[in-house]
Amino acid sequence: MDPECSNAPSGIGDRIAGAARSQCDGMFYRYEAEVPLRWVDVDSAGVVNNAVYLSLMEQARYAYFTHLGLIRGHEVPFVLAAATLQFVKPGRLGMKVKVAARTTKLGRTSFHMEYEVRAGKEVLCKANAALVFVNEQLQPSPLPEAFRETVGQFEELLD
Asked: Please, are residues 35 and 60 in contact by the beta-carbon 8 Å criterion?
């Protein structure tokens, strides 16, 4: 976690008690993952390519749900339906990048997440995404109750 941001243990459940809260620039996140930049992620000017930010968020999303015990192996039961990104500052090779992730809404078959890609205290990119649970035929399917309960408890989305 960034020492410049306030941190406190979440204290929510045994599996997620080790998660830390992060608050930078007014945005509140309970999960943050370090996602290293690779040489291939930058253009000839040394700036991180805009498409790379989706990959950084995907890595953080996978780490987030693995941390919560909701993904085992490489089977991901949901797909990205939409994403909106706001590029704030250019990223450069050599920056230590972290991605903060949070779930903000749980629907019937979909859920919404927000992200901040950060280098130290600087926010490089902000994003939000809609993800949909799918069955084997890639048709929308209801969120599993264990998913809803675990994420809802972690993010304090449950009544």
From this structure: yes
pLDDT in tens, 114-137: 999 999 999 999 999 999 999 999
Q: Mind spelling out the 3-state secondary structure of the chain?
A: CCCCCECCECCCCCCCCCCECEEECCEEECEEEECCCCHHHECCCCEECCCHHHHHHHHHHHHHHHHCCCCCCCCCCEEEEEEEEEECCCCECCCCEEEEEEEEEECCCEEEEEEEEEECCEEEEEEEEEEEEECCCCCECCCCHHHHHHHHHHCCCCC
Q: Where are the domains of the chain?
A: 31-154
- pTM > 0.85: yes or no: no
CATH code assigned to 31-154: 3.10.129.10
